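tokens incoming
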């Protein structure tokens, strides 16, 4: 797998890869990612709307689309199955990891989909080139191959509480996990799923440059939470976005594609 690419690598290969700006912000944050993209982005990048490019037949936020919808979405972005796709964001919740996971779920070659390590903030801090140009795309014919083993639904989560097939790891911050802080979505109660383990995603990120910590450090962080590296894991969070950060970190450790509870607390925490 090729989970991460560096800012240096991307600048050298900027004309040979497909670049997606997958910025997304929590609903209680007053930021518009597309407006920010129009003002400044990595050259040749295309904006990827996580909410729009999701399942529109459910009230739950940014759930995985259908196979046919995904084929249409990616084809309209001008991406082929043979393209190396690099995803970045300008978000505090590393939303690029969600799009990385979605490409894996729909069968894109794991060696050909990567997240920009350090994201747009690192790119800007290094004074690398940016653009305001909105890129036009020529539609392609993308073919998806859905891997349903990489997603869990609510029934499977309830079954897992009893059978404990997966270590269920929650990426939300500790206050939300413990039910001491109100959820960003007002319709949700506070708390967590029985038996889940809290590992706030921020612990996996180097605060200095917003890159993922080294593999050895990631292993120790998981072990400190009494998570067995050798046992199967599944990941959850508020709405399926930051769970994918944990999933990417575990992929660095184990080489495995992540398993995500797609509905996450947005579904499980409904009153």
């Amino acid at each position: 797998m090729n989970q991460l690419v560096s800012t240096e690598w991307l600048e050298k290969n900027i004309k040979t890869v497909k670049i997606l700006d997958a910025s997304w912000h929590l609903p209680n944050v007053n930021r518009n990612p597309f407006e920010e993209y129009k003002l400044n982005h990595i050259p040749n990048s295309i904006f990827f709307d996580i909410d729009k490019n999701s399942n529109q037949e459910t009230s739950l936020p940014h759930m995985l689309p259908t196979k046919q919808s995904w084929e249409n979405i990616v084809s309209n972005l001008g991406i082929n199955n043979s393209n190396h796709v690099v995803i970045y964001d300008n978000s505090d919740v590393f939303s690029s990891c969600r799009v990385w996971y979605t490409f894996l779920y729909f069968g894109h070659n794991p060696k050909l989909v990567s997240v920009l390590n350090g994201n747009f903030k690192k790119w800007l801090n290094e004074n690398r080139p940016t653009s305001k140009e909105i890129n036009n795309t020529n539609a392609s014919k993308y073919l998806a191959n859905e891997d349903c083993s990489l997603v869990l639904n609510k029934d499977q989560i309830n079954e897992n509480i009893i059978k404990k097939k997966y270590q269920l790891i929650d990426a939300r911050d500790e206050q939300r996990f413990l039910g001491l802080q109100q959820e960003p979505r007002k319709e949700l109660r506070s708390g967590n799923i029985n038996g889940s383990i809290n590992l706030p995603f921020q612990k996996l990120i180097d605060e200095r440059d917003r890159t993922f910590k080294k593999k050895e450090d990631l292993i120790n962080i998981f072990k400190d939470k009494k998570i067995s590296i050798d046992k199967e894991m599944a990941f959850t969070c508020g709405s399926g976005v930051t769970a994918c950060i944990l999933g990417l970190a575990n992929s660095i450790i184990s080489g495995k594609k992540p398993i995500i509870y797609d509905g996450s607390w947005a579904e499980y925490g409904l009153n």
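note: The chain has a mean pLDDT of 96.
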